[in-house]
Design goal:
This protein is mostly helical and 512 residues long. 48% of the residues lie in helices and 7% in strands. The chain is globular. The two termini are 45 Å apart. The N terminus is likely disordered.
């Protein structure tokens, strides 16, 4: 197989980002002008007919399809998937103004009208996932005709199918019904598709994931950071669990276990990427790649998870940077008392997941806040770190498989649950097995963008968030409100299992 250029190397070039925007614009023009006239593409200009030809072209194209994942998890998805649950909340800074976009998400008070919303973070996640889909579609539309090594072709095609399936899976979980684009958009009419039903979306997600499994290599044979057959199998198993297709989920998840490509890291804290090492380790099934430095591949999500105001010295004590800077505004994704209480006595994951910092300028009590420790790694420069974001870990494979077996009343569920608990330093579970698996997911996967999806798929979201909201309203000081500061009047008044669609997109698509 020809050597595939590394993700990091090709992510350096911002030119490739612009290429895809140019292609989309050019396609619209060309489609409208070629009905009656012969269109000639100069060989020295960049266009679909001249670009998607060589192995290097497709390697750069698939690299570009991964790029929006960094922005999604660096910015808005943790708000929508974690802070929208009972796992994290925001830390109010009364000296700063309102930050309605984040607070509305945490407070389940996002303004919406006719099924659309102007919330910035909803828009960001929606648009970034469709950017991945658009790039994947362009690859899938052209790669079969390319004269390149067949193994490379299969690998690139499998990655594109995985990325499209993963993107639609998150869109379906966040929004329910969304437009389903399976081909490159060449005109305005093609961009304004009707909303596909959840059944239609999930049918395509399953088809894409199945196809990706057959095309992608094993983790041991794939370049680190790229999608693998195991990642596609885990995605498919996750989809089947959401769809309550327990037998199908069991089959595909058991294949991941039987592959012997993955293991639990001996220590829970070692399951998470360091700033420059421990990435894509033996527990990692799929993670989003970041790299510290000046080439634009870095992350900064840790800084979004800090309470505020925080002095430069206090930032430096957490990050170890040479140029720490003070951070103002409002902190987001602060662990709630609820998640802290969810850990059993002796659970080693608690101290590996949560740490405490004291802020000298805080307006809340003594300023001693819990923060997410999983992503605290020393790095050189302020706002520039290289920890990867975990999407799927092997421990989740084990818990999804345990859930699938338990739902079918089959033996073995407790065995897989025990593997996860043993590593956490815990003994046997107590009570109902199904509830034990659900609760185990909460602490094992805390702060990894899983909790909101779990609440929705199990039908618990409305009741859990209603009770969560009542606790905040009754005891705001326990949830990081300064003494005398009350929650806004609209908190927890718009609890819904789905987000409204972005208003900015509704102006382009009359089907919203």
């Amino acid at each position: 197989m020809s050597k595939i250029i590394s993700l990091s190397t090709n992510f350096k070039t911002e030119k490739m980002k612009k290429i895809f925007y140019l292609i989309a614009a050019m396609l619209g023009f060309l489609a409208s002008s070629c009905d009656k006239e012969l269109t000639i593409f100069p060989e020295d200009s960049l266009s679909v007919p001249t670009f998607f030809k060589t192995e290097e072209d497709f390697t750069q194209a698939i690299n570009g399809a991964y790029v929006p994942l960094r922005n999604i998890n660096n910015q808005s998805k943790p708000f929508l998937a974690e802070m929208h649950s009972d796992n994290t909340y925001f830390a109010r800074n009364t000296a700063f103004g309102a930050t309605d976009n984040q607070e509305d998400i945490a407070d389940h008070s996002i303004p919406s009208d006719g099924g659309i919303t102007a919330n910035t973070h909803v828009y960001n996640v929606y648009v970034d996932y469709y950017e991945i889909i658009a790039r994947a579609n362009q690859i899938l539309a052209t790669i079969d005709e390319a004269e390149i090594d067949e193994a490379v072709k299969a690998n690139v095609k499998g990655q594109a199918l995985f990325l499209r399936a993963y993107s639609y899976f998150d869109l379906a979980q966040f929004f329910g019904s969304v437009p389903m684009h399976l081909e490159p958009v060449v005109d305005r009419e093609g961009a304004a598709l009707p909303l596909a039903s959840e059944d239609e979306l999930y049918g395509q997600i399953i088809e894409d994931a199945k196809a990706a499994i057959t095309l992608l290599p094993l983790k041991s044979q794939q370049q680190a950071g790229r999608a693998t057959s195991g990642a596609a199998q885990t995605l498919l198993g996750n989809v089947y669990v959401v769809r309550k297709q327990w037998g199908e989920a069991e089959t595909v998840l058991q294949q991941v276990v039987d592959s012997e490509e993955y293991m639990l890291m001996p220590n829970y804290e070692d399951a998470f990427s360091g700033n420059s090492d421990n990435k894509n380790n033996m527990e990692s099934v799929f993670e989003i790649q970041y790299r510290e430095g000046a080439d634009g591949l870095n992350g900064s999500f840790l800084y979004n998870f800090l309470p505020r105001p925080i002095t430069a010295e206090e930032v430096g004590a957490i990050t170890g940077t040479s140029n720490p800077q003070p951070v103002n505004g409002e902190g987001n994704n602060i662990p709630t008392p609820d998640i802290i209480e969810a850990y059993e006595d002796g659970d080693l994951r608690k101290d590996a997941s949560i740490m405490y910092v004291t802020l000298s300028e805080s307006f809340w009590e003594d300023g001693n806040y819990p923060i997410i420790k999983k992503y605290v790694e020393p790095h050189a420069l302020h706002g520039n770190h290289g920890m990867n974001w975990p999407v799927y870990r092997y421990s989740e494979v084990l818990l999804l498989l345990a859930e699938s077996l338990e739902e079918q009343n089959k033996a073995g569920a407790d065995t897989y649950l025990k593997m996860v608990r043993d590593r956490a330093g815990l003994g046997d579970y107590s009570g109902d097995l199904g509830e034990a698996i659900f609760n185990e997911r909460r602490v094992e996967l805390a702060f990894e963008n899983k909790r909101w999806f779990d609440l929705v798929r199990t039908g618990r979201a409305i009741n859990v968030i209603t009770a969560h909201g009542n606790k905040i309203k009754a005891n705001p000081i326990d949830y990081y409100y300064p003494a005398g500061v009350e929650p806004r009047g609209n908190v927890f008044t718009n609890i819904s299992e789905r987000y409204a669609l972005p208003a900015a997109e509704s102006s382009l698509n009359p089907n919203f």
